[in-house]
Write a structure and sequence with these properties.
The chain contains 2 helices and 4 strands, in the order E-E-E-H-E-H. It is an alpha+beta fold. It has a 4-stranded mixed sheet with strand order 3-2-1-4. A hairpin with a 6-residue loop joins strand 2 (12-18) and strand 3 (25-32). The model has no long low-confidence stretch (mean pLDDT 90).
């Protein structure tokens, strides 16, 4: 099963993809947010379909004390929008 990994940032999303065994991932690309700050969902969905990803892992950034800040909330919101 091919997995896609997402590293969510304010301006970009880092994208990695696994090998068919799902064991080894390597960087694929970065996607830029729109000028209005919206995440590029269309481009992301195209990549998912193009690579045949069957699962998505969204990185959850934590602060040094282990708490969730606004970055983690943004990652959770993106994950929710991608959930099917």
């Amino acid at each position: 099963m091919i997995w896609m990994g997402l590293d969510i940032g304010h301006r970009r999303i880092g994208v990695a993809v696994s090998d068919p065994s799902g064991m080894i991932a390597q960087p694929l690309t970065t996607l830029d947010a729109t000028k209005q700050g919206e995440m590029p969902f269309g481009a992301l969905r195209d990549l998912i379909a193009e690579r045949g990803a069957r699962g998505i892992v969204v990185g959850l950034p934590r602060r040094l004390d282990g708490s969730h800040g606004p970055e983690a909330e943004a990652a959770e919101a993106l994950a929710e929008r991608l959930r099917v």
